[in-house]
Amino acid sequence: MAEESGRPTSVTRAIRMHWLLVLLGLVVVVLTVVLNDELIRTWAEGRPDLRRVLETQGLQAIKDGAVRPPAFVAPAITLFVVVGLLMWMLLVFFANGNNWARLSLTALLFFAAVTTVAGIRTDPPAVFVVLSVASMVLEVVAVAYLWHPDTTRFLKRGG
After folding, report:
1. How would DSSP label each residue in the chain?
2. Which of 53, 72, 134, 154 has its CA 20 to 30 A from that of 143?
3. What is the pTM of this model?
């Protein structure tokens, strides 16, 4: 089924899934800023050498301690901007019928899924696990639309 633009519905849906992933990434960045202390607390609880300090002296002792907690906010913002801009650029080429952009978007989603799994393995707060699972579902759906037969025909025509 094609739309007025000449693009099949599968292409439009693939693009929408990618934009939903960008929106979800923005939610994660905002939550990273808002829940930064909770992320630091979870990180400290996962380290036997710091768990006791956290229990006896509190979160501020962890922040001021000799072992510095990892930065969560700056990398989250940087990753969001870089991946969001890359995805936007690739989507422009994909929407115009460039098959290499589909391959690049697929690779980008694969690496996003790998980092999502790695993030879940660090035992983050529950809200991040829920958003990670939602992200993985969207990634699978996006890949399905990227590789839908209608999308393939559209890309073979060159848009």
Report:
1. -B-TTS-BHHHHHHHHHHHHHHHHHHHHHHHHHHTHHHHHHHHHHT-HHHHHHHHHH-HHHHHHSSSPPPP-HHHHHHHHHHHHHHHHHHHHHHHTT-HHHHHHHHHHHHHHHHHHHHHHTT---HHHHHHHHHHHHHHHHHHHHHT-HHHHHHHHHT-
2. 72
3. 0.90
